[in-house]
Each structure stands twice: as structure tokens, then as C-alpha cells.
Amino acid sequence: MNFEKEGIVSVWYSTTDYASIPDSYFEEDEQGLDQWAKNYQISRYDPENMETNGCETGRDAVRKIIAPCSWSYSYGEAVIKKIEKLGDKQISWLILMFDFEYRAKKTHIFEDEYVHFVGCFPYDMDAGNLD
Fold first, then answer.
1. 12 and 118 in contact (C-beta within 8 Å)?
2. What's the number of domains the chain is made of?
3. How big is the chain by its Cα radius of gyration, in Å?
């Protein structure tokens, strides 16, 4: 499925220690897709539009992890609220896909063993960071 959509950022988060996730989860196959993308039925994405941020070990407040991310002022508060609504106040890391609208209602995949899909949020390239 093609999920490209300008002006939208799709967000996933994890509560699993980054160091304890096997390297194979992030290794790309011949098509350039890693296990994460396959698990979410993402057949292609532009790695240039992907951003990740998190802690080396343990967990931290959602705000602390999302604040330094690109343009987070435009979507950060909404992401924080949604993650807290999902029941997590602290996370280990985030995956952000810009110009990408992942549609979990179509794939019926909201989480895999390491990451949870948060949602899709409009973002503004003129916005600064939350911090």
C-alpha cells in the first residue's frame, strides 16, 4: 500500500529498550524494507522522510523524546496526548514518517512486538520544536 501524503506525519512509539531490540528488526531486505515496515504492510517509504528519537536505555517522558524532533511544535502536543491516552507516560523511542499517512484502519495493524502506532497528524514545516 502507498501511504504517501504531503503535510502529514505518522507516528509510532515503543516502550521496549532500544538496545534489547534485535538488529534484524532494522535490517533491510533486497527491496529496502525492514521488519518494521513489513509488519505494518508498508511496501515502500522514503528513508529521507523518516526520523527517530529516543533514549539509549530505559524510558523518558514523551515530551522529552518528541520535543527535539523536526517541526514538533505543530504536532507534538497531540502526539503526547494520544500516547498518554494509550496508557503510556514514558516511552523509549519514536518513529516519525513525514509526508506519510499510515492507515491502520485499512491494514488492521496497530502494533507489533516492539512498536505501537499512535496516529497521523498534520505538521507544519514552518513550525519550530517543542523545546
1. yes
2. 1
3. 14
Cell numbers that stand for 37 in this block: 515496515
The pLDDT assigned to 19 comes to 87
pLDDT per residue as tens digits for the range 50-82: 999 999 889 999 999 999 999 999 999 999 999
**31-56, pLDDT tens digit by residue?**
888 999 999 999 989 989 999 999 98
Residue 129 forms part of a structural domain:
no
Amino acid at the residue 98:
F
**Residue in 1, 26, 8 with CA at minimum distance from that of residue 71:** 8
Asked whether residue 36 is assigned to any structural domain, the reply reads yes
Query: How far apart, in whole angstroms, are the C-alpha atoms of residue 33 and residue 43?
Result: 7
The predicted model scores a pTM of 0.95
